[in-house]
Amino acid sequence: MEVQLFESIYKPRAGGTTTKAVTRTIANTGLSQTEVLLREAIQNSYDAHLNNNKPLKVNLKCYKFSKDSVEFISNLFKKTGKIGQSLEKNILMSYYNLEISDRNTTGLTGYNGFQERESDVEEKFHHFIYMTGNDDVKDKGSGGSYGFGKAALYKYSDFRTIVVYSRIYSKVSNQYQSRFIICRVDDRLPEKESRCWWGAEGKYSDGTTYAKPINGEEADLLAKKFGLTSFSENETGTDILIMKATVKDGLESFEPTFEEEIPALICHWFWPKIITQNLQKKIDFSLFLNGDDITENIPDPTETYPYSTFSRAFRNCVDYYSHKAGSNNDDVVLVNFERPYVELGGIFLKKVGIRPFMYDKYINTDFSKPQVVLMRDVEFIVKYEEVDVDVSNTHTTCFGLFHTNRLGHRQNGDDSHEVEHYFRDIENQTHNQWTHSDLLPFNYLGKLNKVLPESVKKCLDIKTSIGNTASISGLVAQKFGSKLGFGFIGGASDTVSDDTRKTGETKKKSSFTRKNVPVELSIENNSTILTVSYEAKIENSIPMLIDLTPVIKSSDPKESEIALENEIKIKYLSFTDRSGTNSMTPPKQPGNLFKIIKSGDYKLILESNINCAFDIQMKKVELNG
Asked: pTM of the prediction?
């Protein structure tokens, strides 16, 4: 069977951004070229994953063309146009090619060519083959895109050329269909020559021509001649061949990159996908070099530092969000936005001794410092966030992750996945950075960035040191001056005490007393949030009306206590009944009045803007009648 390729050079209607602009975008990620390639290619495969509760299969194969393949491919390009003829003389047996293939995916579905009209179906083939720099086709669960990141495939080829072989199942014809096309995006050429396609001859509605995919047996034959992985009878997926794979233009030796660096990077960026027990989210990787299976070169995340520590934190996260019996709430720091109240997600950390990192040759993350992986529910790693906490004197660090709350949203909001969509929308085009946009109504990322350092300090037991009068905030010192009593000055880590008194004269009277448990601390919007536990006993169904006032002790005999209404605010009093229902009551004015009508455990939530210890003064207010 003789096959001939039709060459089509760039048409204005194809693509959305200039080739040079796209390559500049992927070059400014802060990641290596190999990292960008793996992240984008595998995320795009994941987006096409079949919803059948089976793992995505990703195979990477590194090989050289055989003598027969070189002869066939050279002759194929020789019979095309000037761009193909320029490639013909460079088809050799000496260099390595890289195939990235996926199985248990849909393949590149959609119209069998360039789709000129708006479509109700997802045009995966059209977007992947013809459009570059269009990142607006992500669905709400997407981990990648068919836009900027796809350019990494071309950039990794010394020829800026890839071969695409996909097999789909058509629900219209109820048949399997193979598709084959060759594409080139070369930022080194003038824009009008920078994009080129080779396939079958197709026509736009206006009669002009373009290259569409070759189908059926011809597609399967071409794929075999290029050495691509074949499909079994009922299998769908996509093979992408990067011709003359290279991490640097002109670099001849690719074998060490494939044998050493790529396995390390797979572990580094995809350990959640390797260890997860959720089969729909799992990825099974395999690596082949010159026909030999070298999958074992991928480090086992559960046994490799520091990924073993990340793995333990991740399992705590999975247990927590799946409400698994025995999961411990102490393993999570919940990140909640206060106004409006939104549960953003959880931080899961593990303390560990600092050890040498054996893959620092390929990975520039500093694992001597606290690192927190940022991820959405799709559970691809966006980035390793280095938390600026000094651990130089501890000989320990901590690793873990922040995982968004998939169902987090405002109580009266229209979007039940608001939090997930917020963090998706603030990802950059190559999905390795979160940057808040002022166009969005609430800065959820800012909240996370404030909680992260305090969570790391808590994990590492790094406490704010207790000082003297000099350590008090300038605001408090200026306002109260010498009236402050030295014995009561301290940091927010001090136990908050009170002078709570029982309100009755006999044991049968109702009471509201401080429980002997530590004060809970968290940081929100640069303020310290304190949670103080109380116990109420209501006798004879007689309620209590109490006034709670934060005060600071004074050394002035004429003013033993100074009220801190402006510096320390009582936010609300929380009560949980026997059924587990929680209610939150804000204070009533004047003062901070609360009506206690039920016995049980209460929590007083305060917001402090100062760095000193204080008391909570409680006064009983008489109820009329």
From this structure: 0.73
